[in-house]
Automatic annotation (TrEMBL):
<keyword id="KW-0472">Membrane</keyword>
<protein>
    <recommendedName>
        <fullName>UPF0391 membrane protein CWI71_01385</fullName>
    </recommendedName>
</protein>
<dbReference type="Pfam" id="PF07043">
    <property type="entry name" value="DUF1328"/>
</dbReference>
<feature type="transmembrane region" description="Helical">
    <location>
        <begin position="7"/>
        <end position="27"/>
    </location>
</feature>
<dbReference type="GO" id="GO:0005886">
    <property type="term" value="C:plasma membrane"/>
</dbReference>
<keyword id="KW-1003">Cell membrane</keyword>
<dbReference type="InterPro" id="IPR009760">
    <property type="entry name" value="DUF1328"/>
</dbReference>
<keyword id="KW-1133">Transmembrane helix</keyword>
<keyword id="KW-0812">Transmembrane</keyword>
<comment type="similarity">
    <text>Belongs to the UPF0391 family.</text>
</comment>
<feature type="transmembrane region" description="Helical">
    <location>
        <begin position="33"/>
        <end position="52"/>
    </location>
</feature>
Amino acid sequence: MLRWALIFLVIAIIAAILGFSGIAGAAAEIAKIIFYIFIILLLLSVVLGLVGRGRPPK
């Protein structure tokens, strides 16, 4: 998943260089969406990791 985030980051940087027009603008929007999805997944995994620590191993 981190690989995809880095790929979209590169696409977003290229889009910024090209001026956020046409296809470059669409790629930047996709990169923003993917970024927010990964932030949510990161927070979810951190919360679940902290909750799971309190339980004794089976």
